[in-house]
Design goal:
Number of strands: 3
Shape: elongated
Helix content: 55-70%
Distance between the termini: 64 Å
Number of helices: 13
CATH superfamily of the largest domain: Intergrase catalytic core
CATH architecture of the largest domain: Orthogonal Bundle
CATH topology of the largest domain: hpI Integrase, Chain A
Order of helices and strands: HHHHHHHEEEHHHHHH
């Protein structure tokens, strides 16, 4: 019964440095699969994947089977020898809004307080997630260095994010009127509502725009990845895929001008 191997699968997954939330989700799916098919064959797996109610869940079910099958094969058990044949539904690309310099300038005009403008300046200038902005402390800011520290991020690892001059100016102005340990004293939901109230783009559009703008202006992919807190270049590609053609044109134009 393959379910008995799930704890070992989880342990090896974590030892490889992969995300805990992902393997726990896979194990939950595989446990449900095992309850109906303790010794499944390819047809069982294909039927289980196909009967999911949504396309994203079909995709996750297939990914969980393939991940376990790959691991099982690697340790010599080969519980799912047919795992390579389980099809993974192609994820449909959805149009993603990407903030621009014009959006930033319009947003700064729309916002009425120094605090809100400083928040937007960090979203656009540093590419932080709204949860990371909400957790910033005054002690995380170094005006002299033009940088801030993200002590806790989605990956669990701290990082340093450079602040452009415009962001430094607005954060400095905000610091003159702030008190207490928290930089903004805003929850992630408060930031989301602030943007919505002023009809501005959502937080991820600013993070995506920051990545595109940085690459367009000559920042290397490695530096964007480090400043954003991404563990691989895959997230850079995901965020900038829709603008890949424009980025290529900009890079070629820079090369011609040298």
């Amino acid at each position: 019964m393959f379910e008995d191997a799930l704890p070992e699968f989880r342990a090896d997954w974590l030892l490889a440095g992969k995300r805990e939330s992902t393997v726990d989700f896979y194990i939950d799916l595989l446990s449900r699969f095992a309850s109906n098919s303790p010794e499944p064959n390819f047809e069982d797996a294909r039927s289980w994947v196909a009967c999911a109610s949504t396309d994203p869940m079909r995709r996750k079910r297939a990914q969980s089977v393939r991940a376990f099958g790959r691991w099982s094969e690697s340790i010599g058990d080969n519980d799912f020898p047919w795992w390579r044949h389980v099809p993974v539904l192609t994820e449909k690309e959805k149009p993603q809004p990407t903030a621009t310099v014009d959006d930033f300038e319009a947003g700064m005009k729309a916002l009425g307080t120094v605090r809100d403008r400083a928040v937007l300046a960090i979203l656009w200038g540093c590419g932080l997630r709204r949860s990371e902005v909400s957790r910033l402390l005054i002690t995380d800011i170094s005006i002299s260095d033009g940088a801030l520290i993200v002590r806790s991020s989605k990956t669990g690892k701290p990082r340093v994010a450079p602040m452009p001059p415009t962001t430094v100016r607005w954060v400095r102005r905000h610091l003159r009127q702030s008190s207490g340990p928290s930089l903004f004293n805003m929850s992630p939901n408060s930031i989301r509502l602030m943007l919505r109230r002023h009809e501005l783009l959502p937080c991820h559009a600013w993070r995506r725009g920051w990545a595109v703008h940085s690459l367009r202006n000559g920042v290397s992919e490695a530096s964007v990845k480090a400043a954003a807190g991404w563990s691989s270049g895959a997230m850079v590609a995901r965020y900038t895929r829709a603008k890949a053609g424009e980025l290529a044109l900009d890079e070629f134009r820079r090369s011609w001008s040298t």
